[in-house]
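Hello support,

Our group uses your service weekly, and this is the first time we've seen a run hang past the timeout. The protein is Cytochrome b mRNA-processing protein 4. I'm not sure whether the cause is the sequence or the server load. Input pasted verbatim:
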Amino acid sequence: MSRAGTWLKMLGTGAVICIGGPALVQYIRPTDEELFKRYNPELQRRSIEDGDRRAREFDEYVTRLKEWSKSDKSIWFAAQEYEEKQRAEMEAQRSQVKEDAKIQREEMRKELLGGK
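Update from on-call engineer: The timeout came from a worker crash unrelated to the input. Re-ran successfully.
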């Protein structure tokens, strides 16, 4: 066989593999609707209920990424600072709740002692 024939066979085989492979995968891949129909009813209900919340969380995350990318710092440092800020806020919230509970216990103690 001549070199031209070998090259044509190689190009033809390469085209079938490069074009046919992804086309076959696309053909056999189920759509999102087909996958959703395969869920059991409990998973379908939960997916519908959680869908809005997850979409909102994703939108918030993308918004934060856009804000972080505008700063002079690396996105990773900005994300780390955001997480540290969130942790500090959570810790402050916890300490406030503990303080409120302590004050409430003291008030209850005073009421019990004063009522006797």
